[in-house]
Amino acid sequence: MRILIKNGTVVSATGRGAADVLVDGETIVAVLEPGSARLGFDLEGSVDTVIDAAGKYVIPGGIDAHTHMELPFGGTAASDTFESGTRAAAWGGTTTIIDFAVQRTGERVQDGLAAWHEKAAGNCAIDYGFHQIIGGVDENALAAMDGLIDEGVTSFKLFMAYPGVFYSDDAQILRAMQKSADTGLLTMMHAENGLAIDVLAEQLVARGKTDPYFHGIARAWQMEEEATHRAIMLAHLTGAPLYVVHVSAKQAVEQLAWARDRGQNVFGETCPQYLYLSLEEQLGASSENWGRFEGAKWVCSTPLRSRAEGHQDSMWQALRTNDLQMVSTDHCPFCMKDQKELGLGDFRKIPNGIGSIEHRMDLMYQGVVTGELTLERWVELTSTTPARMFGLYGTKGVIQPGADADLVVYDPNGHTSIGIEKTHHMNMDYSAWEGFEIDGHVDTVLSRGKVVVDGNQYLGAKGDGRYLKRGLSQYLV
Ligand code: DUC
Ligand code: ZN
Ligand code: ZN
């Protein structure tokens, strides 16, 4: 199948220009000056499908490098399967995900990874890779980490939060980071001081402060700043490259900037919820249905932060200045019924997570509309840097001959209304983004040369997506 996308403005991380994109099979074979006449033959007549992108942007498909499909967590499991979650991703212009395989204390890393392959294989609408959560750093886990690179899993995540679940103490972190420095595996860190947070949470509940809002009070920004600093110092000592996930506190960004200015290989992502939503709105959230519990829909960790304290502005700024390099979703959806409701009367029991995989490209494009980001930076944050950071660049994250034909035709004159009855395809009974209006629209999505979304039609299929063996990070200094 040969496809020509003509008349569009091709946008990359470094510029934009009028160009036609020729796809043959699964691959981009040419990026051409607009108009085929000068080639001396009828290019349009030689292809099976012509997509007219006049007035629209043609961008590399989005890469969401932080998702949790089917994650068993908080007494339940994330409500999107690989099938439903990757379909929703495709609807929203994301053509690659990197999900987190899980190993817990006492389990074999190989078994955790195999279980994730089992969940995903044959079910995904788009291509997918894995990071490895190491929830129990012991001799066996450390030895098994040597084998991850051969499996195409070139990054692992540790948690300084969630004692008794995924938590690693400093000794475990040190050992795992030594392995990271030896092998080139990228250390990803959930940087919050979980031991102190659990004490604060217990004290709040004992005083009757049980509403969802208090989740954010217990997980104070000092807990994120301190853990981020500690992770940076351990990374400095060991020489491990460090990537801090879901950064939400401005003080944590300051730590990252400080480390980067010293020349350390330290990176960070934020997520749409830390750019748009706030603790104040969570306090105000109430409805007839859910009473004071509605704020549960925004319970995630790290938590939403105070707008009055300037955290959201600081995230946008850091995205501009490259103190933060990427935007992922941390897609970890739960329904309100039977899932978030587990925490009625005790915020500690609310499963932590927000579903956003379908809306990341749109929400970040709105940052272009409002002047927070340039068009090029939008592409860089959502596709090109994720590809480079996680060893996919060249095949993914770029429009050039030889790259996979993962392409999105984005209409800046279109409009997207977000909500459970509107654009929502995620397996959730509410939307954390209800009522958000976007001045743009994902029109057409190609995944490895197959048109999977065409306007309001879904043409993809379960099993279209392939496992991606990733290389080492291409972003290190
Ligand atoms: N944070 C969340 O909100 N959900 C899943 C795990 C995490 O760290
Ligand atoms: Zn996390
Ligand atoms: Zn996560």
From TrEMBL:
Cofactor(s) this protein cannot do without: Zn(2+)
Gene3D superfamilies for this protein: Metal-dependent hydrolases, Urease, subunit C, domain 1
Pfam families the UniProt entry points to: Amidohydro_1 (PF01979)
GO terms, molecular function: dihydropyrimidinase activity
Amidohydrolase-related domain sequence ranges: 57-452
Stored InterPro entries: Amidohydro-rel (IPR006680), Hydantoinase/dihydroPyrase (IPR011778), Metal-dep_hydrolase_composite (IPR011059), Metal_Hydrolase (IPR032466), Metallo-dep_Hydrolases_sf (IPR050378)
SUPFAM superfamilies (alphabetical): Composite domain of metallo-dependent hydrolases, Metallo-dependent hydrolases
Family to which the UniProt record says this protein belongs: Belongs to the metallo-dependent hydrolases superfamily. Hydantoinase/dihydropyrimidinase family.
Protein name, entry field: Dihydropyrimidinase
Organism for this UniProt entry: Lysobacter korlensis
